């Protein structure tokens, strides 16, 4: 099922949580809403589900305007961060709940509900735990139950709100791969919210980066990581270093020294240079390059992280260089980013 | 200030602590508890044991005693059931809805804890007597409330009211709204959510409140004797029978009835602990 | 559920809401509010003068004095017990703690009549202790000491019940810090612990006092109803009522109802400063 979000605005007590957001989600796609807390990502997910309603704008499921439908009628599978399992019900009854509450005509028989619930538990690898209560399960197992419960209603869209947020790192990694598997097997259109960029980049077909109630960029993980379209996306995704530069004749200058870097079409004036600390090459100090004085040097596993004081201005940047480079304190290092972005302003 | 030194024994009944005063406070607490509560209570057991089994059994199965116990139990049970139903409704209204006067109503729920039972007794009697403000309307229907077992139930509803409200209220306040949203996303109607998700989750709290209200109601005396009419075999409660036996200086009989009620109180206490342990084990909360 | 509220998945329709509020309101009115109002209406039926006369009549004054005396003895004693018990239970780990807590709760589970009965059996004819006190010239039963003892029994758990969970939540960190800084045990209690528990203590004292002044069942068993001597206010109400002196009975009742209202107001205020979480103890 294709989902279209059109010019949606949502306010909570006059505070705008979403400002004019539009998004097209393709059928069968696994998409991540990524952003820091307060960016509006969970609000957007809840609007799609029908747990909240927009002040302005509409949400379409296929060609149908879903804005006029209640959450019950939308038939979405929603997985909550803290599982929201029914504590007084056994695992099996949790999974079967969505079928049990259907209207008389649509409701499968008791035996059929039980059979389908068992099938789903098998699918999420929880066979044998059907008689347990949620309280008797681990966090990872609870989240699997929550997913099975959401899948039981054969949802048009599967929505997950920080599904791994409450789990420890190990379980998180494991469940991430498993969710990708499940998605590939079922082919549901899936939207999940996360503040963990690694999770978003590893798992999603496309990533929606959000910040302060707006969508900053939508793209594949590669596009988001390699060609961020704004300073916000660049600094939010991955490690980044930033320098204020000036642009003259399509070339970058730092305190009147040329850096030997192309401005990539950004017009002359003030600008900001972004690059990844590991995407740099060390060059001879004579060349046109960024030159800095070593302030801090840390050896981490495979590389050396160096903090440099650059130019007369007290700017600091971080770069990663090979471990065999000595990088002694107060020594000077010249480097050039291999990939970089420039933004005006 | 003496510091309690831990013994070298493997089994120790107290963990060592740097805070002084353990011996003093525990000693005083246990001494006071024994003097005021435990030794006097043991007296009841001792006095009824002194009766011998046959005599005890004769008193316990005396028709009037049996009738009084029966009245006490069924009126207390009915009142606790009514309180369980309306207590949940009141708790729901207080937690979920905003309306003018909510805080006032919330505070007023504790009135039965604060109002002396004798005051409640005469007030309810005045209202529910056949000439009273409320009673007169029921007389038209041929229903008499005061001076019948119905009156006892009314008084016991008053006495037990706060128990269910105050046990259910915090659980409802802590209830995770995501769970309700989950039910809605799965297609449950609001009614289905309330009856198959929220109420079952409240059940241990309701049961605890019910047991507390029931236990309190069975032993209640002050508010009941005014409204009950105290007709033997009809509206005479067990605590009143104890008082009457005492006034006749028939202490053994009073002790025997008292012992039966004490046993019952212990059973209730035990049941409440069981409910809470069960609920903690299964649902992870008390 | 109507279309109008489809946007709100976790609340009921306005109609359902108001019907529920109405049902709760009618129920509370019938068992709570109307009876409370009735006390005052019945009391003032014959006017202010009659009320004043009823509560200034010598027997009534004696009852008021005795009620105050009983509360003045039993409440502080239970307060000291409550603090000591809560200190021992909350600040240390020892075996049998849960059992001790249950024993402290016991008086809440016992009929007030039984609270009276135990002292009659302990000090009455045929008892072991009665003759000893009698020969020493001390009358316990059907005298003020009996009334005090019975009141202490029924109000026994209030302060402890309130303080134990509160002090358990606060843990032992503050006290250990004070001791490590060289404070003595008493200094630690007065300067560190007491300020932390003062609202909870006050709350327990308030409830304990309300019950002490209003207790009927336990006191009626041990009092013997000697007018002007062993009759407390609730017993005085009963005597007046049984003499068909309804107006006077309700006048004294109104005084006690007023006390209950003051208690509720103070309780609500205390809950605001000290938080419902702790003040929610149910077993009163």
Structural commentary:
Chain A: Belongs to the ABC transporter superfamily. Chain A: This is Sulfate transport system ATP-binding protein. Chain A: GO terms for molecular function: ABC-type sulfate transporter activity; ATP binding; ATP hydrolysis activity. The complex is a heterotrimer of chains A (345), B (286) and C (284). With 345 residues, chain A is α+β, with helices and mostly antiparallel strands. Chain A has 2 domains: 3-233, Rossmann fold, CATH 3.40.50.300; 239-344, OB fold (Dihydrolipoamide Acetyltransferase, E2P) (Beta Barrel), CATH 2.40.50.140. Chain A is built from 9 helices and 20 strands. In chain A, strands 6-7-8-3-9-10 form a 6-stranded mixed beta sheet, sandwiched between helices. Chain A has a 5-stranded antiparallel beta sheet with strand order 13-12-11-14-20. In chain A, strands 15-19-16-17-18 form a 5-stranded antiparallel beta sheet, with no helix packed on it. Chain A is elongated and about 80 Å long. Helix content of chain B is 75%, strand content 0%. Chain B has helices spanning 22-51, 53-60, 63-96, 102-108, 111-114, 117-128, 135-139, 149-174, 177-185, 190-219, 222-228, 238-247, 251-283. The radius of gyration of chain B is 24 Å and the shape is globular. With 284 residues, chain C is mainly α. Chain C has a single domain, classed as MetI-like fold (Orthogonal Bundle), CATH 1.10.3720.
